[in-house]
Amino acid sequence: MQNELLNKERFMQNVKDNLKTLYRRNMDEANPQQIFQAVSYTVKDIIIDQWLATQKAMDEQDPKIVYYLSMEFLMGRALGNNLINIQGYKEVEEALKDIGFDLNVIEDEERDWALGNGGLGRLAACFLDSLATLGYPAYGCGIRYKYGMFRQAIINGYQVEWPDNWLKNGNPFELKRAERAKEVKFGGYVRWENDEHGHSKFIHEGYQSVLAVPYDVPITGYGDYNINTLRIWDAEPMNIFELESFDKGDYQKAVQEQNLAKNLVEVLYPNDNHYAGKELRLKQQYFFVSASIQAAIEKYKKKHDDIRKLYEKAVFQLNDTHPSVTVAELMRILIDEEGLPWDEAWEVTNKTCAYTNHTIMAEALEKWPIELFSRLLPRIYQIVEEINRRFVLEIQKNYPGDSKKIEKMAIIYDGQVKMAHLAIAGSFSVNGVAHLHTEILKKKELKDFYEMMPLKFNNKTNGITQRRFLLHGNHLLADWISDRIGKEWITDLTQLSKLKVYAEDKKAQQEFMNIKYKNKERVAKYILDHNGVSVNPRSIFDIQVKRLHEYKRQLLNILHVMHLYNVIKEHPEMDFYPRTFIFGAKAAAGYRIAKLTIKLINAVADVINNDKSIQNKIKVVFIEDYNVSNAELLFAAADVSEQISTASKEASGTGNMKFMLNGALTIGTLDGANVEIVEEVGIENAFIFGLTADEVIQYEQNGGYNPMDIFNHDQDIRKVLMQLINGFYTPDEPELFRDIYNSLLNTHSTSRADTYFILKDFKEYAHAQKRVEEHYRNQKAWAKSAILNTACAGKFSSDRTIQEYVDDIWKLKKVVVDLDK
Ligand code: 26W
């Protein structure tokens, strides 16, 4: 046994006992879901002691704690990950095998914890894994959505959204903490009174309340005994009562409060990178922020009586602007409840809050109408007004007479509350998530703020956890690596550089490619089972999986596939290396052109996959319901990683890192963290193409790009575009893709044609794809590049990212947990 806590016989006895208590079943009568539950409870039992010990150690050592405030935690599944982290995966796998169960099948019984949309939510989950592994005291603070990210079905080529009732079978890992519930107030009005000393005091009345009830989830760190907590808040009505027994006024209020509680945490907003301005979303934001901050302050006050030193024991990291109300909520508590004067409260707040920016897409910026904000959060609004008044004074002091600065930087302007400006003003740290992204923030998006307060700005290039995306997702490669360089890479990913010596070793190359082949077989089977399409694992697996967004340019990819198909049809004799193009993407439910792009991919897939004449040279596959769990399989099986966003638009990307770690070669633009990936692995081991960020920004500012010129002069592109509107792929609806065609060629009221430079980059992309093919034909050269990609991925561990946050921003000390205490 690797983990001494894990004794095989005792473990299986516990599973049997749990089956009985939970389901009144014996092992031979249990179904896979029941086994999943029983095994999970058994794992939780093991974790609980360590969790308690961590809590005890935290109590004694009283360390500074980071509260990672995030509306999203895209955790994926817990069971396999926990088994990996407590170092019991293989043992439990064997034990289950002995009684005829396959752990993989049992793992598939767990629903993904899809409490997030994409990059931002998954990053939060990776950070929790790294924090626990490194032994830093941390709480993840979020929302226990009843329905997570929708489940995607593809029906007749179209995306259909199904509710994600992830809690249906119960969640064996969570713990309800009713005793820690907090009241959160909405609406009403604020009046002021003089207290006995003649000081004015604000009184909030006529509000509606909900009870925020926390559910705690253990976050296991690898190997060590440190277990952190993810605290997600559920909403319940304050009082459960007999509605009849109230007089009329109370009755109405009681009904409203019940409804508020019911709706509040019902569903995750499925918009990624797009702000919709929904009232309920602002409620969700304030709800989880208020509850989390109250809990943090309560914890602080148990041991300390000087609230002015809160920053010595707590730091609130704001995951994008979604929790920006933290700044004002903390001010409210410090002033109204703790009695601090404004200046002291502001100093505490400013030393306690830090903000991470994850996007420069203009449509993602959160700004709330004053009317809505002040109606929903009257006291918070007052405080934001005062923060704004003082901030504007400061701007004036720095730039006397420059009204443009105020227009651009004020927190409240033109009828709106700007959440990014609030976060920047209220934080001591503002960071971007990749070097290029941070530079764009400083030079462009947040230029004025950077000029006024340069010291706040810093970069923290994203990372990913190798425990989930290599050790769990790719057992074969993980074992191969450990056989060569030992297991240290599991907690120190820079160790992977020791693999460089194998890059030119023939045997190692062979083995590496064999592992890739086996992982491709696994995905081929998944595709056969789910799509009914048979794909050849000897073909190049070329994969683009991420949210569907125009800036990510899935359209560029599929247009290029259409072009290749045209070429093969015209030159059937041509030597073409077989390729499987795999897509996976969810589109926000209201994002028309994104949904149409999904239909296009599926329409192209239908035609190409069924065309016998091309002899399986191309296959196109759309993976339904792309999520964390099937992602793990896909990264392991990729030869080519598609990272083709319009340069300057992708803040960092993290999928790019997961592919690299698993030995895929990147075809991509110099965007986000791709830049740093190429720095690490060398440009000769990637396929870089397209406009640079500077060039894109130049065109955006000065014009000079007209896609029609390309349309007029490039026959290949013209042919492909014509096929969007002549029924080539959808004979029954010839004009189905007219809107996509128009988006590329017609100037709209809101933007230039081809906003994302798809036609501009097309030729270079096609050429880069040719280089991919040539490189792949030389299996040794490819294997060398693939090994080097894995070997050079060390920088991209979220362990490194977290250590940087700790050193530069959070200033935390590790907790030492002694299990025998
Ligand atoms: C208000 C709607 C909304 C919802 C989500 C706006 C913005 C978001 C997120 C900030 C979008 C997001 O997930 N951004 C991604 O963050 C990742 C982690 O830093 C980066 O790797 C991705 O490049 C970035 O798109």
TrEMBL record:
SUPFAM superfamilies in UniProt: UDP-Glycosyltransferase/glycogen phosphorylase (SSF53756)
Q: Which residues carry this modification: N6-(pyridoxal phosphate)lysine?
A: 658
Q: Name the species this protein comes from.
A: Anaerosacchariphilus polymeriproducens
Family of this protein: Belongs to the glycogen phosphorylase family.
Q: What is this protein called?
A: Alpha-1,4 glucan phosphorylase
| Catalysed reaction, written as an equation | [(1->4)-alpha-D-glucosyl](n) + phosphate = [(1->4)-alpha-D-glucosyl](n-1) + alpha-D-glucose 1-phosphate
Q: What does this protein do?
A: Phosphorylase is an important allosteric enzyme in carbohydrate metabolism. Enzymes from different sources differ in their regulatory mechanisms and in their natural substrates. However, all known phosphorylases share catalytic and structural properties. Allosteric enzyme that catalyzes the rate-limiting step in glycogen catabolism, the phosphorolytic cleavage of glycogen to produce glucose-1-phosphate, and plays a central role in maintaining cellular and organismal glucose homeostasis.
The cofactors it requires, by name, are: pyridoxal 5'-phosphate
Q: Supply the EC number(s).
A: 2.4.1.1
State the top-level EC class. transferase
